[in-house]
Each structure stands twice: as C-alpha cells, then as structure tokens.
Design a protein that fits this description.
The protein has 121 residues and is α+β, with helices and mostly antiparallel strands. It has two helices and ten strands. The mean pLDDT is 97.
Length: 121
C-alpha cells in the first residue's frame, strides 16, 4: 500500500488530500470536503494534467505580447513541448480573445488561444 499527500486545487479550500494506492490503482481518497477533491486526487496520481498559460509576442500591437492558454488541460509531461511551440510563435495585431494562436499544440489536441484583445498600435 502506498499513500500520496496532495493539496487539492479544484476549489479555493485547498484541502489536504491523502490518496491511497495498491498496485498502482487508487483505492481511496481522504481529506476532501467535496466530490471534486476525490476526483482531483484520483486523476492527479494516475493521469496528471494542467492548463498551460503564457504569452506570445505581438507585432504591431498596442502591447508587445498577448496572454494565451490551452483551451483544455494537457498531460503534464507535454508542458515543455507546448511551451517550446509557444516560444517560437509570433502573431500580428489585431488579436481577439479566443483567437487560435496554435492548433493542436505539441500533438495534444489542445489549441493555444488568446485571452486578451490586442488592438493595432
């Protein structure tokens, strides 16, 4: 039997979770005050994923960069590959919230989308 201690990030409470595993399978989650904590604990120890946020350079914009994020969570082990793609891209103004900056980033199925409007300078 193995136990992993985590802090839940599903809501602002930040519950201290203990996830119990046997032979790589989750057998229990304790410490959560809501069902989201149970789901988070199970997913985090078996298939951790994250939303990636960053910025992309904007040419000709009133600001030099636009904030971006993945439109869904991606496997944690793909974060570096996604960030490599983000670092290599630049866009031209104008940029609108929701514009797809990169399709299928690093083969994850997630798109990188703009989260801010950037008007032309």
């Amino acid at each position: 039997m193995e136990q992993r201690n985590l802090i839940c990030i599903s809501c602002p409470l930040g519950c201290a979770l203990t996830v119990t595993l046997e032979d790589g399978r989750v057998t229990g989650v304790s410490g959560n005050t809501c069902p989201r904590g149970d789901a988070y604990g199970r997913k985090e120890v078996t298939n951790p994923t994250r939303i990636v946020t960053s910025t992309v350079t904007v040419a000709g914009g009133h600001l030099p960069v636009v904030s971006v994020k993945t439109d869904r969570d991606i496997p944690k082990e793909k974060i570096d590959a996604v960030m490599d793609e983000i670092r290599r891209v630049s866009v031209s103004a104008p940029v609108r919230i929701g514009d797809i900056i990169i399709k299928n980033a690093a083969g994850t199925g997630a798109n990188i989308i703009a989260t801010k409007n950037i008007r032309t300078a």
